Amino acid sequence: MTDTLTAAAFLRATATNRPAADPPGEDAGEYFAAAFRLAVGLRFRPDVPLPVIAGTVRTAAQRHQGLVPVREAEMLIREALGETVPTAEIATADAVTVHVLMFAALVEELALTDAELDELITQAGVRP
Amino acid sequence: MLTALRAEDRDEVNARPASARLLREVFAVAVRRCFAGRDTRDITPYVRDLLDRRGIPSAGATARETEAVIRSVLGEPELVDGIPDERRLGMMILVVGDLAQGAAREGAGSDAELLEALVNQAETRVARFDPPSDGRPWRRRSPR
Known about the structure:
A: mainly alpha; 6 helices; about 0% strand; B: mainly alpha; about 65% helix
């Protein structure tokens, strides 16, 4: 439960551009992945043109000064939309980076309110 | 260049900067003639099929990088950041050979003829877009 709360707080802090009080717990990865998938589903339709996805990834990569691995990020987004794409051999650290930073980028593009952001995080199984 | 493409041998290309430049043009011509105007998503199954036929793992990093190298000449150059040059050139040789073989199977000529045509067109493009060393092509030399 503590890990869940910490993960939620970390995700919320990242999405609202604030420093997190604590690092996420070791089991936070699955929460981040679930939140990422929900945000992808809200932001994109399955048939969205690839340049739209690529533009979102490019903007996030520029904002975070190269922290976002662009090829992996695009493939993880497309996988979340139901496509069969090559997502093997993505390092856990890269996947977590994509899930957290792209969640923040997608929430920003969706212009969610604080209440909507909390609702999304709650839906992902993370209670803020 | 033709020998390197036919043999899928990148050593010759790696050894000479001019060959690498020409290979990039050959690759751009081949990819654009096959994929320009099509849905970018068509590239993903093409790469998967290509790697499967060659016995190369098609679900991981090699597939992502090959797709990125192809898309880089279709307007997304940033996708290849972080892929070493030597690796890119190897992927280019693989794709050019495969596209030529695919076109040959569809009756466009023999793959050897197609490769030669691609190289000829690439050489024309290099001459067209590389400015001469003595100035811009549209600027007349000053009379002596």
